Amino acid sequence: MRLRELEDYLEDLLPLKEVAQVDQSLNGVQVACSDKELSTVAFAVDACMATFERAAEGAADALFVHHGLFWGKPLAVRGSQYERMKFLLSHDLALLAAHLPLDLHPQLGNNAGIAAALKLEAIEPFGYYRGLKIGCKGRLPRPSSLDEVLLAMGTDRRSCMAVLPFGPEEIRSVGIVSGGGTSEVEQAIREGLDLYITGDASHQVYHTCMEEKINMISGGHYQTEVWGVRLLARRLAQDLGLRTFFVDVPTGL
After folding, report:
1. Cα separations in angstroms, 18 against 4, 13, 39, 127, 132
2. Where are the alpha helices (DSSP H) in 58-109?
3. pLDDT band at 73 (very low <50, low <70, confident <90, very high)
4. Pair (142, 195) in one structural domain
5. Residue range 33-61: mean pLDDT, rounded
6. In a domain, 13, yes or no
7. CB 34 within 8 A of CB 92
8. Looking at the structure, do residues 121 and 186 belong to the same domain, yes or no?
């Protein structure tokens, strides 16, 4: 498989073109490689030297990330940006990215991955961002505590950025917007949800959550956005027969 074929596959699988008007990320191929046969694709959350080096060590021909190098404005190729570009080109390592398309995908997205881990039922789109619902909401199969939800997500209170335990002790309804979705808690409040899950934490929503009596988990921007790239890596291996592997470079944020 060539890079162009991989890009065509991803355009069919993910809504890259559909979100182009609202997503600041340059989705799709960000840095090309030579016209070689691709056999191995690495997956990671962030485009950075640490992931580039680990991808190259794993003999990857291409690297797919959630957070790419280009975000809606031209960047001078100097400093760290120069070193990153130099590394990719010198190692003939292609870079592909999908930001919002990988958040909102109903099976392969970050939010869908968390929902599946929680075994949510009656799942619906949730969380408007620039006119798109990029998250999801649903109901737990049985009433659960905050700690049971955290365990299902593979984390706990100490590992999260913040846990605001201001809602019902028995949680039934959950809304999810991975990454930087702190302000979307307002939508969860309007919809009467018991729990809102996102990545980042924010001082501004603390008292709102307390007064509106909603639980909120800020699981970490990175940790809530590993789900999509992992799911997509498995899907690529199944569909295309490529070797894939996940590069885990947590930031603690």
Report:
1. 19, 12, 28, 17, 10
2. 79-90, 100-104
3. confident
4. yes
5. 98
6. yes
7. yes
8. yes
